[in-house]
C-alpha cells in the first residue's frame, strides 16, 4: 500500500510539473538530449541505410526483414489521407505508345519488341511538394509517370523531369520530403523549397548535391509539361528471350524542345494563372496539337556494371550519354483529355513494381524501397481494391484468387478462390506462356547497413552538370540559389550551402555568397573542378533542328483603327504555322479597323480574346503589334508595362509601322535598333525585337520577310543574348 501510495504521489507530482495538461504527448523535436527510436521506443543506430546483402565494393539487394526501414517507410506512406503525400497536384492525359524499333536483343517484352502494336497509355505530370491547391509554376521537380496498358499487363514508369534524385537509399524518403514540405511549426512555406529545413537537409545529406543543382536550374520551372524531358530515374533490368540481362534507364525527349520560364515570370504566373501548366496541356490537346516525346533507352550489359567511376545503381548519378548513348526506339503521344478529373487523374495510381515479362528490377536501393512504398501508399489513399478502378485496371484479361476487402467492385462467380484446386482452374502461367520470371541474379555479401564505395562520391556529377550549362543557364542557376538562400533566415543554413557550392565551383560560390552572405574562399579540402562537360545536360542541346512556333501562345495587340490587312496577314500566318494567336486590346468588346465603311457595322468589327487587365504578357511566348492609323490608345501604363515586361523576359517582340515607336517608347534601351520610316532595311531584327516600317505581303512570298524573321525568333524560345548583354537590366519590368 505504501509503495502504491508513493506511485500515486509521484504521478500527481508528474502531472503538476511542466508537462501538465497533456504535455505528456508533447515532445521537443529540436532537443539534442534524445536519440532516434522506433515507434516502440527502440533506439536506432542507422536511419539512413536499408539492411542489404552487400560487400565493400558492390551494393546488393535490400532485405524485407529490416523492421526499422519498413516501419519508417510505412508510417510515411500513410501520413496523409486522401491526398497524395507527394505529387499531389497533377494533370494528365490519355495517349498511345508506338514502337519504331524492336529491341528483342535486350528484352522479350512485347511492348518493346512488337512494332505492329499501338499501346494505350495514361500519363500524369505533377509537382512534388505542393498540395492539390498549389500553383503550377513553382520551382519544383515535376513528376512524369507513364502507365502502359500492355497486352501482358500494366507497366508503370514512374519518373521525373530530372534524371537523378536527392537520395540513394529509399529509407531516406521520409527525411527528404519532410525537409522539403512546409515547416511543421507553422505550415510555411507552401509548395516551394526556399526555407531553412530544406537547405539544412541538402547540406547535411551531401548525396543530394547533384539533384539540388538540377532543381535550381531552369529545369525547376518548365515552360510546359509538353516541353520537358521525362526520366525513369532508377536503374531497371531488361531480360531477353535467352535470359541475358542488361541494365537500363528510360528517357522521354519532347519533340518541341526542352524549354523553361524565367524566374520572375514563373513567380507572377503563380498568381496570375496558377493553373497555367494544366490549361496549357488541356488546350493543346483540344486544339489537336498533340504533344509527343521520343522514347529511348540506355542499356548496359551486366558484365559492364563495374566499368565506371560511379555506381550505375546510384539514383543520384546519371549515365553520361557520351559513355552510354540513348537508343531512341519509339514515340509517345498524348491525344485525349480525361473525361473526369477525379476518377481518372486523381484516382490513377502508379507503382514502380508494376513491370511485365522482359522488364525486371535491379539492386538500385532507391528502386527497391519504392517498390515497397508505392504499393503500400495506394492502400492508404485508395483502399485495398485500388487496382479495380477503371483508370488502374489492365486492359488484358485478369484473374487471381484475391477476394473481398473494402469497396470490392469485381464479381467472381464459382467456388474456387485458391490454388491448387480440384478443378485445376486458373493455374500459374508457365514461362513459355508468358509467365513472369524474375532474373536469377547471383548475390553474395554480408547482411549489413552499408553502401558501396562508389556511392560515397557526391560532387563530381554536380560539377559535370554545372560545367555543361550555357552562360544564361549558369546565370539563372546562380540567381535561383541566391533567391532560395535569401529566404533562409538561419545563418548556419545559408553559410553551409555556400561552403558546399565552393566544392562544386568557386566562381559560383562567390557569386552566391556576395548576394546572401557566407564565405566562398578556396579551401584545402575543396574538390577541384576538372571542367568535364556533357553535351546532353544543357536544355539548349534539345532545340529542334528547325525552330518551330507550333503551339506557341502569341499575343497580337490591336486597337481601334487597326490595319485590317496587316492584322489578317499576321494572324493567318501564325495560325498556318501552328501557333496559337490571341487578340489582346483595351477591352473585350468590338473594335474596328481604320478602313471600316461603317464603324457600327458588326461585319467589320473584331472582338478581342482578352483585355490587358485580364491577361498579362507572362502568359504568352511572344507579342506582336500590327500597324494602326492611330496608336495613341495603346500609350497607357498597362500596355507599356506589357511590352517592357516581355522584353525583360527575353521574349520575341514584333512591331509594324506606327507600333515601332510604341515599342521604342516602352523599351527605350541602348543597343536595340528599330526600323525607321524610309530606312534602308525592310526588316530590322535586334536582340529579338523584329520591326518593319510596313508589312508588305509580297515580300513574304518572295523571301525572308518580317513574319519569317519574327517566327524564327519565337521558335528560339527566348533571346538570351538580350539578357547576357545586360539589356534586360535596363528595363524595370
TrEMBL record:
Q: Write down the SMART domains for this protein, in alphabetical order.
A: Catalase
Disordered: region residues: 518-537
What is catalyzed by this enzyme? 2 H2O2 = O2 + 2 H2O
Instruction: Indicate, by first and last residue, each region the UniProt record lists as having compositional bias (Polar residues).
Output: 525-537
Instruction: Give a yes or no for keyword Transcription in this entry.
Output: no
Task: Say which family it is in.
Answer: Belongs to the catalase family.
State the function annotated in the UniProt record.
Catalyzes the degradation of hydrogen peroxide (H(2)O(2)) generated by peroxisomal oxidases to water and oxygen, thereby protecting cells from the toxic effects of hydrogen peroxide.
Provide the protein name: Catalase
Q: Which organism is it from?
A: Trichoglossum hirsutum
